[in-house]
Design brief:
42% helix, 7 helices, mainly alpha, 201 residues, two-stranded antiparallel ribbon, globular, two-stranded parallel sheet, single chain, 4 strands
Amino acid sequence: MYRNFFKRLFDIFGALAGLVLFSPVILFVTIYLSIRNRGSAFFLQERAGKGGRIFRIIKFKTMTDERDGDGRLLPDDARLTGFGRFLRSTSLDELPQLVNVLNGNMSLVGPRPLLVQYLPLYSARQARRHEVLPGITGWAQCHGRNAISWKEKLELDVWYVEHLSFVTDCRIMLLTILKVIKKEGITQQGKTTVELFNGNN
């Protein structure tokens, strides 16, 4: 009952409450980034959702679009701004995804939506992560976030699918708050962004 009905209600009310509660922060960051980036404050990217369906995720833009002399984007660590690093460390860059939750593309809690290019690389078990809506936070984010291997992360995603419940979701929300406060597992040691998944790691 919770999985098929009450979880969606939980998402709607939670997303609305989050948008109201964080509206001053969202407004400030939007204005600042619009000025800083001389354009959009948001980063939109196609991700794989429930059933492998493609949708566009919304995040605050934490990197510039600076390019080299040949027109190629500079490395991530060269484009990540100081303010962007702050947004990532506090997870404030994820706040716009509350809109994705209201649209029904995401849930507050679930496996993180990953790149579309990963879809053919999952094993049959790993692909079970797409049996539920992706989330702003999830079981893997509470157990290492980006500091653990892909194999561990995907196994934790499947664990969530198999143990989805109201109690589990509440537990994940509380653990996420603690993780954000402690700023744990933001990236892998020595790396600015997450290593790409190749089906073997």
